[in-house]
Give the backbone structure.
Amino acid sequence: MEKSLKWFWKHRSVVLCTLAVFFTCSATNTAESLASVGVGGTRRRNDLAPLVGKGLRFSGLSFRIALFADLHYGENAWDDWGPKQDVKSDKVQSIVLDNEMPDFVIYLGDLITANNLPIHNASLYWDRAISPTRGKGIPWAILFGNHDDASFEWPLEWFSSAGIPDVHCPFAGGKSCSFRGTMRMELVKEEIENNILSHSQCGPTELWPGISNYILQISSSKDPDLPSVFLYFLDSGGGSYPEVISFAQVKWFKEKSRTINPDARIPELIFWHIPSKAYKKVGPHPKSRIRSPCSGSINDEEVASQDVEWGMIDVLINRSSVKAVFVGHNHGLDWCCPYKSLWLCFARHTGYGGYGNWARGARILEMKEDPFTLTSWLRMEDGSSHSYVKLSP
Ligand SMILES: [Zn+2]
């Protein structure tokens, strides 16, 4: 008994933090599952509502979204160069937001470079990444990339020729030493708890430790209960998790989309971080010119696709309501290409962290409500815009 009390006292911060994370996110999921059952097992209109995050709505003629991809805050956090990059990333975000005045921002993964952060609480950098949007009072949502909860890698220059120094973990001797980072769940939980403008969610428990799997509804200007568009977020892994959209996620998508949009009447847009192999199939040959019907301005590297795939793209191309998929990850690609009935699009490298020196910018999406149309373009750090493309009939 005395031994276990001692253990608890030694590890109290880890235990309490883990419990807090569990209760915050399990409360959301319990509410969701109770609401989705409905009275007597029959689904009523209002029972559907808590299945998806609400609160976004067409207010005028259109709804505009800015995609911020691959910001990579916290790069080289131990020297001058890294923090200077972060200042420049703040500036890119502000310029895009001032020029576009979007209704919503989607952070498309790799907000931070956790493998460059020698601190346990990467939430500090995460908070910095979302602060330009929060500062302007614009709501947002996030999904995870492959760098957001990656383990810290010790830079080689830290090791002297005399030998490798002792590792100093935040909780010396504890199991947390093996990870040396901040878990996906802690990052998103901190964000949700501290930001009323955040629409991010922890995702269903059956898909954990993949976290950013959830749906948001953009409601009609005529009726806040009436969906006009559904946004689906999927966690394509990386970091502490394999780079994959799993069979369980495919099953979840099929079930959820069938429930909330049974006749596929409502347009649907899909967001994740690491491109599917289908991008290789439809995209221009690496380093060649981008020709019509594709649209974009840089095609300077090969598509770096997910490790393994479990049929997500096949499900999407057979669903008429899905209009487009948006990914980040490749900093040297920014094109959109049609694939059967939908479009596969890259965002644009937004942050100064991460590899490559291509000019920074953001992909913008603009939707009109009735009839539904979707157009997109790239807004650059110098204020210019280009690569306009219509992504709906
Ligand atoms: Zn990246």
User: Anything to note?
Assistant: The chain is about 25% helix and 20% strand. The first strand starts at residue 53 and ends at 57. Residues 1-23, 27-50 have pLDDT under 50 and may be disordered.
